[in-house]
């Protein structure tokens, strides 16, 4: 969006990018240094011919700032997996072997796979898990 706002439709792509301080051809912008060829050293000229003036440096600055922001974690679990885990804990507690034999175990998960799914749920939603366990304990207290 930063490039789009600074774009001048009357100029070519190369001119627009040069004004923003961006490279049109990455191979020319960052040249690969020459290596030794059979004992002979090949020197490369480190300076480019005809340096361009950057007229719109704010574009690069805004892009660098946007890239430096931390990425938001948007990991969530599916509603089906959450319901599955809650059902298993509600009916079987910590007995993973019993969970593996349950009729709702459609994917025929092994006890270790079920335990792993429960641990993933615990890690993603620790507060919700604590509340859920507390409500289960509350129900058991009321029944007795």
Can you tell me about this structure?
With 144 residues, the chain is mainly alpha-helical. The chain has 2 domains: 1-68, no CATH class; 79-143. The protein contains 8 helices and no strands. The chain is elongated, with a radius of gyration of 30 Å. The model has no long low-confidence stretch (mean pLDDT 84). It is found in: Nucleus, Nucleolus. Keywords: Nucleus. Belongs to the NOP16 family.
> Approximately how much helix is present in the residues?
55-70%
Largest sheet report: none
Q: Estimate the mean pLDDT confidence.
A: 84
Strand content: under 5%
- Gross morphology: elongated
The secondary structure category is mainly alpha
Helix-strand sequence: HHHHHHHH
Count of the domains: 2
Distance between the termini: 63 Å
Total number of β-strand segments?
0
Poorly predicted runs:
none
Number of contiguous helices: 8
Rg estimate, integer Å: 30 Å
Pfam family, one: Nop16
Subcellular location: Nucleus, Nucleolus
Organism: Scopus umbretta (Hammerkop)
Protein name: Nucleolar protein 16
Please outline the helices and strands.
Elements: H1 2-6, H2 13-20, H3 26-29, H4 57-68, H5 79-92, H6 96-101, H7 111-124, H8 126-143
Helix pairs in contact: 5-7, 7-8
Attribute tags:
8 helices; about 140 residues; mainly alpha
In a nutshell, what does this entry contain?
The chain has eight helices and no strands. It is mainly α.
């Amino acid at each position: 969006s930063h490039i789009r706002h600074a774009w001048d439709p009357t100029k070519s792509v190369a001119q627009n990018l040069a004004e923003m301080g961006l490279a049109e051809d990455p191979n020319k912008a960052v040249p690969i240094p020459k290596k030794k060829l059979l004992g002979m050293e090949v020197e490369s000229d480190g300076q480019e011919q005809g340096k361009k003036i950057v007229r719109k440096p704010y574009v690069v600055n805004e892009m660098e700032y946007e890239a430096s922001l931390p990425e938001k974690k948007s990991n969530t679990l599916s509603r089906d997996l959450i319901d599955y885990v809650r059902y298993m804990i509600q009916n079987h507690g910590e007995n993973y072997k019993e969970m593996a034999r349950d009729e709702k175990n459609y994917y025929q998960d092994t006890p270790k796979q079920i335990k792993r799914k429960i641990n993933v749920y615990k890690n993603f939603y620790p507060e919700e898990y604590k509340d859920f366990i507390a409500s289960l304990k509350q129900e058991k207290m009321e029944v007795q």
